[in-house]
Write a sequence for this structure.
């Protein structure tokens, strides 16, 4: 049984799960699937729990097959996937913290999101009181002559999200970085449970503010799949327009900020201007600078404003005029290249193993973009390229962003050129129950959303997986052997989400 | 690079000039912030930003204050890396329980006189996360707040306006020691 389609045939098919199948499997099949993932045959898209079951989403990239395997675990135990496949370790730690389900043979027994401060244990599972004093977190031991530790965070020096980094260094060289996250855990998956669709959509749009369009889109698509309805053409087109504007804004912000962390503030200033212009165009077109709460299940909450098209066309013209000069500046500044080239290298093997998406994956040879594969409308009818590089360093992650800016401009022009007319919203009330899955390419990588909609139109269960889950661990690998002073540069080139990860 | 630098010299700055309504508001705010800030704090107001569980949306707009359009540093307002250098804590998010202690410690590390500005709807009362097991629900539940700036997220202009309001009230009353 090597094909994912065989495994789907072998399991018990769950009804009304769309667009890809979900099958109930036994312990043995679950283990077999974990082994296949560990061998690299399939990619792990997600691993999440509910009261007495665990789910694993898999992607067979060669055959373009996506499937969810589900394992009932009434005893609160399931065979650990992390035991054979390290990318699952943190996901399993989160499952234990939230649901109280234990992975048998799990390699890391430490909590992850639970810092012992919620006043209860397993908030989404059977619950229970937490011990009155939180136990101290034990970082991994580092031993050796001349090593020293540098604790950083959770409150950082910049205007950024909170997380803790524990560096072990030998002189200036980083020997090990260990991340500790979970500081911005807001309990979003519990808030979603039982919430009406409109409220849940709003929560989804506030999982990670920089990716609000991507999350709202992924949630809307998952709900629409669950209820077997389709958004209208104009809504589909405008959603893509928002997604590309979000990509542009974030890429400009990132390119500038990376250069800023290499002390090249000129790029930062100019990229900041372009970012602001994108936000103003988005505001003119959709009435919100970050386009929050515009995408809802069934379509859009607002249509494109009349002045929006002109604002976006003016933006595209402005970017086309200014951005090539900035690209040239980046390319021709030796002191800047000296900092970015060869710094923070991620190996292609790791990227493949972790199924790492976004610019981190594409800068190290993984040609995955959810817009292309498995793909979703309107992208199959648009022309665009997915840039891929091999070097895996900070420089490559900058170049992927530069190329993606160029591609997004092309996509935006096509979207505006073929914009369908008509209404932008279909009703979703009383449409029935079901389960849906969606994979959407945000600026950072693939956002995964799985939802079960109850017959009364509320969310029975929703899981949202940020691309950062498979990128954060690689940052630990990327910084190894680099100097401490290059960490901000490496970190910014990843720009992982804290809020999206901590949820 | 030389060409880019040269063009920057001869081109007018993008920093909000006068005519349009919004631009006029920036200019008006600029004058007022400048006057109040000078009266109260000489020429400097140092801000430490603390994300206490935000979705990162507020941070993006706080960042925008530093871009060439809003250029908050021209008023003598600047963002600093440590609470020990700060006059103002700009706090975002519904305050997650996992960030509660860090926020309290950051406040304690800030020397008086000091002010706390809660930025965004979440920071005001927990917003859409208020009923979560993982959130305290509003900055005021953890540290005393001098000003709330509403919005999801507040626009850079609202942030500027809020900082002005803070300076006005600070001039009238006693800051926290």
């Amino acid at each position: 049984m090597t094909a994912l389609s065989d495994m789907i045939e072998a399991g018990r098919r769950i009804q009304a799960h769309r667009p890809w199948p979900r099958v109930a499997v036994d312990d043995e099949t679950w283990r077999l699937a974990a082994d296949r993932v560990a061998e690299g045959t399939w990619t792990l898209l997600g691993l999440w729990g509910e009261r007495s079951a665990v789910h694993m989403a898999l992607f067979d990239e060669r055959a373009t097959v996506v499937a969810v395997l589900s394992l009932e675990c009434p005893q609160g135990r399931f065979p650990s996937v992390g035991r054979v496949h390290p990318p699952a370790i943190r996901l399993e730690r989160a499952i234990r913290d939230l649901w109280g389900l234990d992975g048998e043979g799990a390699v890391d027994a430490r909590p992850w999101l639970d810092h012992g401060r919620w006043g209860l244990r397993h908030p989404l599972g059977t619950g229970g009181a937490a011990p009155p004093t939180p136990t101290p977190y034990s970082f991994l031991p580092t031993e050796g002559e001349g090593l020293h530790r540098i604790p950083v965070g959770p409150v950082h020096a910049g205007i950024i999200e909170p997380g803790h980094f524990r560096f072990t260094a030998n002189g200036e060289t980083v020997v090990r970085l260990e991340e500790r996250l979970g500081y911005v855990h807001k309990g979003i998956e519990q808030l979603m449970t039982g919430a009406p669709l409109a409220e849940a959509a709003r929560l989804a749009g506030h999982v990670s503010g920089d990716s609000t369009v991507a999350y709202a889109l992924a949630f809307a698509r998952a709900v629409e799949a669950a209820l077997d309805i389709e958004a209208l053409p104009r809504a589909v087109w405008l959603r893509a327009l928002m997604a590309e504007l979000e990509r542009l804004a974030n890429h400009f912000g990132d390119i500038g900020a990376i250069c800023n962390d290499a002390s090249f503030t000129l790029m930062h200033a100019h990229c900041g201007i372009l970012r602001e212009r994108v936000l103003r165009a988005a505001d003119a077109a959709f009435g919100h600078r970050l386009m929050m709460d515009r995408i809802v299940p069934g379509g859009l909450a607002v249509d494109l404003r009349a002045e929006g098209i002109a604002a976006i066309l003016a933006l595209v013209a402005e970017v086309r005029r200014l951005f090539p000069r900035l690209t040239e500046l980046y390319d021709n500044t030796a002191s800047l290249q000296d900092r970015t080239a060869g710094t923070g290298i991620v190996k292609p093997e790791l990227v493949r193993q972790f199924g790492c998406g976004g610019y981190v994956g594409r800068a190290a040879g993984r040609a995955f973009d959810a817009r292309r594969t498995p793909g979703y409308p309107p992208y199959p009818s648009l022309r665009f390229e997915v840039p891929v590089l091999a070097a895996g360093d900070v420089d490559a992650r900058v170049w992927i962003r530069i190329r993606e800016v160029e591609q997004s401009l092309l996509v935006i022009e096509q979207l505006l050129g073929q914009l369908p007319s008509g209404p932008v919203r279909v009703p979703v009330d009383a449409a029935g129950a079901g389960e849906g899955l969606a994979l959407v390419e945000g600026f950072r990588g693939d956002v995964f959303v799985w939802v079960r909609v109850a017959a009364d139109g509320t969310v029975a269960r929703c899981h949202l997986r940020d691309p950062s889950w498979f990128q954060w661990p690689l940052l630990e690998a990327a910084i190894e052997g680099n100097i401490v002073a290059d960490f901000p540069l490496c970190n910014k080139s990843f720009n992982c989400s804290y809020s999206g990860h901590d949820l | 690079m030389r060409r880019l630098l040269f063009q920057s010299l001869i081109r007018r700055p993008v920093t909000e000039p006068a005519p349009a309504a919004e631009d006029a508001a920036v200019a008006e705010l600029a004058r007022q912030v400048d006057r109040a800030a000078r009266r109260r704090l000489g020429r400097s107001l140092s801000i430490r930003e603390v994300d206490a569980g935000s979705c990162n949306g507020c941070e993006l707009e706080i960042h925008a204050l530093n871009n060439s359009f809003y250029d908050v540093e021209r008023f003598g307002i600047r963002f600093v890396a440590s609470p020990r250098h700060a006059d103002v804590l700009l706090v975002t998010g519904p305050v997650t329980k996992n960030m509660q202690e860090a926020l309290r410690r950051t406040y304690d590390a800030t020397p008086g006189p000091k002010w706390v500005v809660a930025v965004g709807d979440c920071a005001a009362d927990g917003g859409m996360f208020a009923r979560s097991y993982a959130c305290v629900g509003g900055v005021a539940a953890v540290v005393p707040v001098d000003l709330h700036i509403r919005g999801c997220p507040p626009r850079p202009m609202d942030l500027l306006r809020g900082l002005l309001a803070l300076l006005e009230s600070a001039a009238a009353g006693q800051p926290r020691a």
